Amino acid sequence: MEFRRSRAIVPVLEVLPEAGSTNDVLRERAGDLPDLAVVVTDNQTGGRGRLGREWITPPGTALAISVLLKPVGLPSAAYGWFPLLAGLAMSRALGPLVPGGVQVKWPNDVLIEGDKVCGILAELLPDLSGLIIGAGVNLAQTREQLPTETSTSLALAGAEGVDADAVLSAYLIQLSTVYREFLAAGGDPIRSALRDEVVEACHTVGRQVRVQLPSGDDLLGTAVGIDEDGRLVVESDAGRTAVAAGDVTHLRY
To answer: φ and ψ at 163, to 5 degrees?
Structure first.
């Protein structure tokens, strides 16, 4: 993999033949690397998702992408928006490649017609010196190779001749764009209009959901919006609740 197009977009792009976790590799080197440095592999052997879930795919069928962000002067409260912005960027990158619609599931998944094609994992660096945005995007898995019945790949979704460099370069262009817009607005999702764009792309808003909260409790209701802090607003029998973290299930009724 040479990634000629992708290399032209970011200051550093390291392509690894294999990695346990691209997020871990990038974290170890973060002090010596610039803003928007990238590590990528198509053979990640120890990847992970939210809540410590394992994310491993057959070699050559998916991309594991980690991007280093070093925003200067951004308020710490704004950092919660980065998983959503990365999901928005990935949905924009993948949209032209498949005939089905591409949406964002709050807070960190990208879906094609309701099935997961990409997961996002954002991890802070010490002292809020920056963060790493990890993304795992399914390129060419067969149905039998996917981990769940609600997963998909670009190939299964109808993308023709899936090209890893095309996917990566499109994502890096979109991520760089929303990142710079967010910085220019001082991390204000309203002034940058990014909150509205995330809401428009979000498959969760308007749906009946079950949210497993960090406490272990379940919240059942309707997702009615995303607030200025990036929290999912759920309307239930108990009123409106702003959810900062949780595992969301879209209910199919």
So the answer is: -115, 120
Give the tokens for residue 27: 């974290």
User: Does the pLDDT at position 16 exceed 50?
Assistant: yes
* 189, two tokens: 């999702």
Question: How many Cβ atoms are within 10 Å of 174's Cβ, its own excluded?
Answer: 20
Residue of 136, 140, 164, 135 lying closest to 4 (CA atoms): 164
Residue 1 three-state SS: coil
Nearest-angstrom CA–CA distance, 104 and 124 = 21
Q: What digits encode the pLDDT tens for the residues 190-205?
A: 999 999 999 999 999 9
Per-residue model confidence (pLDDT) at position 159: 92
**Residue 178: CA count within 13 A, CB half-sphere:** 25
With 0-12 / 13-18 / 19 or more C-beta atoms within 10 angstroms meaning exposed / middle / buried, residue 252 is: exposed
Nearest to 80 by CA among 187, 175, 180: 187
Measured CA to CA in angstroms, residue 164 lies from 64, 67, 159, 169, 196 at distances of: 11, 16, 12, 8, 30
String of b and e for 108-147 (b: at least 16 CB within 10 Å)? bbbbbeebbbbbbbbeebeeeebbbbbbbbbbbbeeeebe
Do 134 and 121 contact (CB within 8 A), yes or no?
A: yes
Q: What does pLDDT average to over the chain? A: 92
